[in-house]
Amino acid sequence: MTDKHPIMELVILESPFAAPTAEEVSLHVAYAKACLVDCLGRGEAPLASHLLYAQNGVLDDRDPIQRGRGIVAGLAWASVAHRTVVYTDLGISPGMSAGIEHAERLGRPVEQRELGGDWARLRSELNEQLASAEAAAASPPPPGWNCLLCGEFVPGDPLRRPHTCNDGPAGIGE
Description:
single chain; alpha/beta; Rossmann fold; 2 domains; four-stranded parallel beta sheet; two-stranded antiparallel sheet
């Protein structure tokens, strides 16, 4: 280490990237940037290859061949890193798991970290939204029928539940 330019520890940064929606990808990008700032604040020189290579005009993360090329390029840099740091506020993705396994195979230390604060709250909200969506997909629709005249959903048995819409009576009376 020199007095003028201290040598920074090289770290591979693992955080989520791929996601089913553009909103989640944007969240993951913002999170990865916050993780980079955290590493720099610790005096480290981080590489977040998923941010570098998945930028517009570099590689398309949705194309499996290009995604694989980016992963291999990141792993090549990983061979010179001192450590892998894994940020877990938003969970551990399959890509992160592969990075962790690679580091362990090479004998490189792996450190798990959290930023905390709002990131933990966002993860909790994402989990709730996912659980809600899964529950909605698994539950059968409530019993009922759609009015042939207005299209409105009317809960209950059409033989026992009259319905009056703007176009007049459409249900079968009691």
